[in-house]
Amino acid sequence: MGLLLPILLGFLAALIGGLYLLGVFRQRRAGEPPLDKGLLPWLGHVLEFRRNTLKFLQRMRQKHGDVFTIQLGGFYITFLQDPQSFGSVVKESRDKLDFTKFAVHLVRRVFGYTSIEGEHNILQMFSNKHLKGDGLELMTQSMMNNLQTLMLHNIGSAVEERTWMDDGLFNYSYNIVFRAGYLSLYGNEPHNSEGSEKKAKEKDRAVSEALFSEFRKYDQLFPNLAYGVLMPGQRLEAQRIMEYFWNSLSVQTMKTKDNISRWLWDIQQAKEERGEKESAISKYMFVLLWASQGNTGPSAFWLLLFLMKNPEAMAAVKEEVDKVLKEFEQEVQPGGPLINLTREMLMKTPVLDSAVEETLRLTAAPLLTRAVLQDMTLKMADGREYFIREGDRIAVFPYIAVHIDPEIHPDPHSFKYDRFLNPNGSKKTDFYKAGKKVKYYNMPWGAGVSMCPGRFFATNELKQFAFLLLVYFEFELKNPDEKIPEIDFRRWGFGAMQPDRDVQFRYRLRY
Ligand code: HEM
């Protein structure tokens, strides 16, 4: 008995400690948001959240209102769903709300890369330098050349000219935009190593095709990889693909290329100067491939599909594209030079801009997460205040709170190509909720410290792709009555959404 009591007490203490760690004893304190722990200790609501994030968050919002804390896989996350109060999260100082802590964790799990001190500063510095202003001009020009290499290489070859080609629209759009984006960032095959420009371009096409095929395999594993629930066989496959990319995007491989973007070049150099190992830099190149190529292709698909399903929108965009070509004295002619779509021309397309923004409103659904570094008060626009605990997380899911809010965007599930246009043709930025102007009226790029640095380049990529397709090709859905596919609900929260199935279309050169 003398020995049993301490053992029992020890067991009890361990049990209580374990339950405490599992979050079983956490109670809502005065001044905190409503707390919903879910039924499963520690896991909380993770299964329902993972199954369909959108549906789950809509249910929670209905139950608790626009601020609530839920338990998810060991974390307590406060969701803020009032767009008027988003500034309190996205503008909060970095010593209270931190983006990197969460990102570092995810990047290690999903890409096998361990971040170094000051990494985010390097990324921001060179993104500011090369993904905006003059740097963007170079990147856009490079994208144009690569799109031409991929889309227009059959021009003049009697065999394929004017033959209808069948493909899945998702597959085609993702394939072309991924490959052109990859070549623009990671460089081209040098002409002299292949013997001629023609051969070098052929190699670019073959290499980028192989990369796209592997990227899509990874893409399909991605949601489960991010949640850490891959089956053992899938885990091996993910590891194999990661190694393939570490190798294909290695510093050594990149050094053999021409036209590497200054963005990646400078990031590589800065990391080398900080003494980071070459193998680690190669892994980071895969992280950036993911960030830069995982969203634009799927968005290109939605843009084309919405245009094809809305003849009025298609006609308005086509009219604008033809007008810009004329204004810049360019013409697509059989046997003539390829058109050169410059950044200046891309700045004269308000209708296409609005169509792109509307596409992203309907199909980009990121989940923005911050780690709470110290106890803080969340101040709402209407004066409410909530106490938030250190160690928790705060998240914003703008898709529900903004993108499909019928007050901000009437008839929110319809594609209206001119939703972001004023009657005088300028960009519309005035949107209201309960009579008050909403600052964050569309958030495909996130906001604050982690806002997508590639947003200007991505927009140009989408516009260039649509522009070239419109002027050089005839294209149509195989089934004109095709329904717009549903969004693949496993991907809510991961940026640009993908459809749950592809849609068949056909295309051929106009001339
Ligand atoms: C339609 C296309 C795109 C969409 C919808 C998109 C969306 C986003 C979003 C929502 C984030 C923030 C994630 C967060 O806060 O957790 C992000 C981050 C990022 N994006 Fe994009 N993106 C796109 C294209 C691009 C392109 C083309 C590039 C590069 C050329 C790029 C580079 C990045 C990088 C490097 C980050 C990480 C930023 C950081 O850690 O501060 N993105 N993107």
TrEMBL record:
Entry's CDD domains?
Answer: Cyp8B1
Localization in the cell: Endoplasmic reticulum membrane
Q: What is the protein's major site of localization? A: endoplasmic reticulum
Which keywords has UniProt assigned to this entry? Endoplasmic reticulum, Heme, Iron, Lipid biosynthesis, Lipid metabolism, Membrane, Metal-binding, Transmembrane, Transmembrane helix
Q: Which residues bind substrate?
A: 109, 295, 393
Q: What SUPFAM superfamilies would the database entry show?
A: Cytochrome P450
Instruction: Look up the record and name the cofactor or cofactors this protein needs.
Output: heme
- One GO molecular-function entry: sterol 12-alpha-hydroxylase activity
Q: How does this protein sit in the membrane?
A: Single-pass membrane protein
Q: Which domain of life is it from?
A: Eukaryota
Query: Which positions does UniProt annotate for heme binding?
Result: 452
Pfam families linked to this entry: p450 (PF00067)
GO cellular-component term (any): endoplasmic reticulum membrane
**Which BP terms from GO are recorded?**
lipid metabolic process
Q: Which family does it belong to?
A: Belongs to the cytochrome P450 family.
Q: What is this protein called?
A: 7-alpha-hydroxycholest-4-en-3-one 12-alpha-hydroxylase-like
What is the originating organism of this protein? Answer: Cottoperca gobio
Q: Which gene encodes it?
A: LOC115022806
